[in-house]
Amino acid sequence: MKVSPEYFVQSPWTVSAAPTDIESRSGVHLTQAQAEARLKPEGIYASSSGGCTDRNNPTCTSYEYILSGTVDAVITLKHASGSAITITGGTETGHASGTYSHWNGYKVDLHKTTTLNNYITTAFVRIANRGDGYPQWQAASGNIYCDEGTHWDVTVF
């Protein structure tokens, strides 16, 4: 079967749109257990006001449905920055909606530390403020780090 480059054959009976570059880099959606199994050995933990991981509870910090590329980016950030990393926002309800959202697995909120702050603001390029006025920095990878005052809002592309 001949298909155009923007499509790929999944099986002899199914032709689907090819994943975009961002989709390819973002990886696959993980369960809570799968994400924890990758993050905990790296010393990366979650913190929530509710002390829970329920994706449908806004007081929890959930990894359910987080993208593997987002998890990989957090691990890379920890190693590159030398900073302790605590995830304070994951895929739980209560965040802004959109394609590249927390709910869809592209974003995490990180606890601010002096080491992490210094790394992000010196290693990455300062770009225009976000629409709501918060300052942003962009990594060579395209990931965006927004200083929301109380935490870093990280979008992984």
Beta-strand residue fraction: 15-25%
Strand arrangement within the widest β-sheet reads 3-4-5-9-8-7-6
Report the total helices: 4
Provide the low-confidence segments as ranges.
1-16
On the 0-100 scale, what is the average pLDDT? Answer: 90
Report, as a whole number of angstroms, the end-to-end distance.
32 Å
Structural class: alpha+beta
What order do the helices and strands follow? EEHHEHEEHEEEE
User: How many domains make up the coordinates?
Assistant: 1
Q: How many strands in all? A: 9
Helix content: 10-25%
> What summary fits the major beta sheet?
7 strands, mixed
Whole-angstrom Rg: 17 Å
Write structural notes for this entry.
This protein is α+β, with helices and mostly antiparallel strands and 157 residues long. The chain has one domain. Helix content is 24%, strand content 22%. It has a seven-stranded mixed β-sheet. Strands 1-2 form a two-stranded antiparallel sheet. Helix 3 links the parallel strand 3 and strand 4. The longest helix is centred in the middle third of the chain and has 14 residues. The chain is globular. It starts with 6 loop residues before the first strand and ends with a strand. 28% of the residues are buried. The N terminus is likely disordered.
